[in-house]
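Bench notes, afternoon.
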Amino acid sequence: MIKFFEILKEKLHFNKIGNSITTTFMVVVVLFFMFSCSKEKVEQIGAIKDRSAMPQLHATEITTIISDSGVTRYRISAPRWDVFDKAMKPYWNFPDGIHFEKFDVNLKVDANIHSRYARYEVNEQRWELRGKVRATNLQGELFETEQLFWSERESRIYSDSLIKITQVSHIITGIGFESDASMTRYTIRKPQGIFPVDRTAGATPPTTTTGTAAPVTVPTATTPPQRQPIPAPVPVAKTKK
């Protein structure tokens, strides 16, 4: 290193009448060289501080079966599935939507639901579905809303949002909705209107109600029509831990 400075000193003396920009550049080089010789830079990667913000499991394009006590309960298809097990309240997140089918004790599909977003709270055993929520029950009735909650613990499905129910002969709209887990017995808290599906000439005019009307309870149909489920995607499971 001493020899390097001697050579550099002669160089600067020889070119002392030269361009000042060249001299300044050489000084900067010396300072940089001295710094690099005196201390070696060590790069350190900081530890992850918030483990709760990172999913323990991340999977894409999944199709899976969920069982409870050895009994098949659901079949889920989703473009993305993140499991946050270290959060204060552990949950599953489906940011790109979900499609799932619910099975009864005889492994028969008694409801299917599709939404653009879904979240499952593990400890509370409760689903939250948002964005173009569409559900079909065993009677073929179609339920449409923007937000729907499904409590497994209480075997109850409910919503405080506007809901539209399309039956074989009528369409029912209202605010607030509550149902059993199979969505075959349900109550509309604030019905707004009942409209016939057939709107051709001579059809019965729609019957409308105000938001203060009494709740409408719809019993289970005695002769259910053929069910028309929502088509489900068929992705291939690619799971990463």
